[in-house]
Amino acid sequence: MTIIRRFLLAPSFARLVRKERGSVRMTEGYFPTQSGRNSHVLVEAGQCHLVLVTPEDGAEERTEVPRAHADALLDVCAGKTVYERTRVAIGGGREALVDRITHPGALDLVSVEFDDRDAAATFLSPPWFGPETTADAAFDRRAIALGGLPAAGEVALSNAALEALLDMLEDRFGRSRSISAPSAPRRMATRTSSARSAASEPKPPKAKRRHRSPRVSLMRAPASRLPVARPMVASRDSRRSSVSCTAGLTWYRPAATSASRWRT
């Protein structure tokens, strides 16, 4: 026989738990009591079951049904509850179920299951748990689905409760706040030392550029920059005279003669 102890939970704590652990969406559709047994259909992570519960001894029977049958049962049920469930370890080999009910209204609960009454009676709730509602049947999910949300006051918050919740979440991952914090400065110091060693290494000398005088192209240079030809030797008796220029080029022109025609 499974015994459940149920507690209220502060909405901010429930939100923090869902952020760190994630959650699974669950939908339950409840039917009126028949033949002394309660029945409801459960849809969880793609799996669907028809659940029969005997209130006297808490015996539970589950039968898997196709998704189409589960959807049809949800359409004809008397009331539904939709909630996000997160499982967290709380030490001593026990697990707490954090439920964020979203339909028919908003309510945050946390529950712990036990195999016997002695274990349930000796259980000490963590500081981040709220007031216990085990004895109030109005906080049962079946009662919420069929009768609506009960009146619940605000859960008091304290620094001790927040510290206990943070310690529980961090111990799940096997790390501590005081140990993980200095890791970032160590990596920064390593990078700084490597950057200094790289800066201290001598740099290779730069290659000197050879100075080259600009070349003047005779075909593209303007007329003002072209070499001027100056006559060096001129002979009146010869048919052709040569004229040399300072640029080392020689042009030939016919000599001045009295004849009207050129001689070959």
Overall mean pLDDT stands at 78
Low-confidence stretches: 172-186, 233-252, 257-264
Percent of residues in beta strands: 25-35%
Topology-level CATH name of the largest domain: Hypothetical Protein Pfu-838710-001
The level 1 CATH classification of the largest domain is Mainly Beta
Q: Roughly how many Å is the radius of gyration?
A: 49 Å
Q: Main beta sheet, described?
A: 8 strands, antiparallel
Shape: extended
Strand and helix order: EHEEEEHEEEHHHHHEE
The main sheet orders its strands as 1-8-7-6-2-3-4-5
Secondary structure: helix percent: 25-40%
Give the strand tally.
10
**What is the number of domains?**
2
Cα separation of the termini: 138 Å
Structure description:
With 264 residues, this protein is an alpha+beta fold. It has two domains: 3-174, Hypothetical Protein Pfu-838710-001 (Beta Barrel); 227-254, no CATH class. It is built from seven helices and ten strands. The strands form two sheets. The protein has an eight-stranded antiparallel β-sheet. Strands 9-10 form a two-stranded antiparallel sheet. The longest helix has 18 residues, at 183-200. The radius of gyration is 49 Å and the shape is extended. The N and C termini lie far apart (138 Å). Mean pLDDT is 78; it is low at 172-186, 233-252 and 257-264.
